[in-house]
Amino acid sequence: KLRERRWRAITGRILAGLRRHGNYSLRVRADINEVARDAGWVVLPDGTAFPSSSHSQNPSCIWEFVLEFWWPSMGTDLGVVNVSGEVADADELVGQLRVLKAAGVDGVMVDCWWGNVEAQRPQEYNWTGYKRLFQMIRELKLKLQVVMSFHECGGNVGDDVSIPLPEWVIEIGRSNLDIYFTDREGRRNTECLIDKERVLQGRTAVEVYFDFMRSFRVAFDEYFEDGIISEIEVGLGACGELRYPSYAANHGWKYPGIGEFQVLTKKSEKAAEARGHTIWARSPDNAGHYNSEPNNTGYYGRFFLNWYSQVLLDHADRVLMLARLAFEGSAIAVKVSGIHWWYKTASHAAELTAGFYNPCNGYAPIVTVLKKHGAALNFTCVELRTMARHEVFPEALADPEGLVWQVLNAAWDAGIPVASENALPCYDRDGFNKTLENAKPRNDPDGRHLFGFTYLRLCSVLFEKPNFMEFERFVKRMHGEAVLDLQA
């Protein structure tokens, strides 16, 4: 009985997806086997289905996805809209998007940069460039994922443009350095802000973010109402990810350094005093530097690690609460960094400095916060293989596959939707195949899978013939189309 109900539910979702996204005219009481036969598939008496020989497809090559939940999108260039409110190389962009649309890409991801939109004065927003860009995307009948980017761009892996924080924020920061995170040498990191300092013209960073999001929601109301904007990803830290700026390249970090804890002395002192141990508030002085290895550093106490990770969770809680108010009724998501180096060590040191207390309770507290606010999880590094990373840098003890498995299962167990993107440029079949393996694990008894994937990033190299052939093949497989020589 339970198995029959489950299969009926799955069938219902498939049919709903076909009605919503496919070019099918289905009866109210459509039979899934009849639908398959109409599509040219052979259906055996036991329910096994595969394409007929006229389709020249091998049944062993079929990998189906439930179309109701799955769609691939493309991340645009980071500087697609500049500070002057202009779309960079608009004609070339339209041509590229047309090619991607023809290849089966369903949507586009766009970063809306705080530093560009609210650049000169507080609460004066220039959405002109984004309005033009979104209109171009709508005319191509593509969906939109929009990132609220409250961090600066430049100085990290993949940053090919420089977009600072708003000028008026930088000016305030010159006399109020505590709005920035600080490393153990006292260097300020201007990539993102500490959220509780009420020095931004009488507002905290979180309040400024809320006003920005509310302005965006009003300015692009028609795109929400039409369903063109399908998701808002809320930036929560460095690189738009939920993490501390612990491995900043502009402070000398290089892979696979463990990074540095970011100092919040005033906050830690208050927390330690509340526990009756003021000495616990001391920032780590034996935790190494940006490029240290775990075995070259000391250990640090549970109080500090619990407190350090909890501050990050509290920040996510505050911002997501306001994001839910600003985007009521719309899908929101949070990007979590895939810090896979030193994953095979007991300390998980690189994760600790970023704010992920993995040795204690893993990523469960993060997905709990996301579930509280109805937010999806967007996770990175799904294209990486552990053996390949070992060949590149064996000393890093990296395990991207183990990390992805842990995080995805934590999210699925909590019942929140999960999407993904690649961490590094990917043009080869091996990386695309690994992404597909993570997107829908073949042996998952519950049939759990990702609901979307964003390819990073739109660039001229992608359109080189061999690269684009692999990408187009990858998109077809994401859409459930059978492709020959999958193991080649």
Question: Can you describe what's shown?
Answer:
Belongs to the glycosyl hydrolase 14 family. The active site is at 241 (proton donor), 421 (proton acceptor). By secondary structure, the protein is α/β, with parallel strands linked by helices. It is 39% helix and 12% strand. The chain folds into two domains: 1-56, no CATH class; 70-478, Glycosidases (TIM Barrel). The strands form three sheets. Strands 3-4-5-8-9-10-11-12 form an eight-stranded parallel beta barrel, surrounded by four helices. Strands 1-2 form a two-stranded antiparallel ribbon. It has a two-stranded antiparallel sheet with strand order 6-7.
Cα-atom Rg, whole angstroms? 24 Å
Unreliable stretches covering 5 or more consecutive residues: 53-70
Order of helices and strands: HHEEEHEHHEHEEHHEHHEHHHEHHEHEH
How many helical stretches?
17
Distance between the termini: 41 Å
CATH level-two architecture of the largest domain: Alpha-Beta Barrel
Helix content bin: 25-40%
- Within CATH, the superfamily of the largest domain carries the name Glycosidases
The strand line-up of the biggest sheet is 3-4-5-8-9-10-11-12
Q: Can you summarize the main beta sheet?
A: 8 strands, parallel, barrel
Name of the CATH first level of the largest domain: Alpha Beta
Return the average pLDDT rounded to an integer.
Answer: 86
> What percentage of the residues does DSSP assign to strands (E)?
5-15%
Summed up, the domain count is 2
Tertiary shape: globular
Might you state the CATH topology name of the largest domain? Answer: TIM Barrel
Structural class: alpha/beta
* Count of individual beta strands: 12
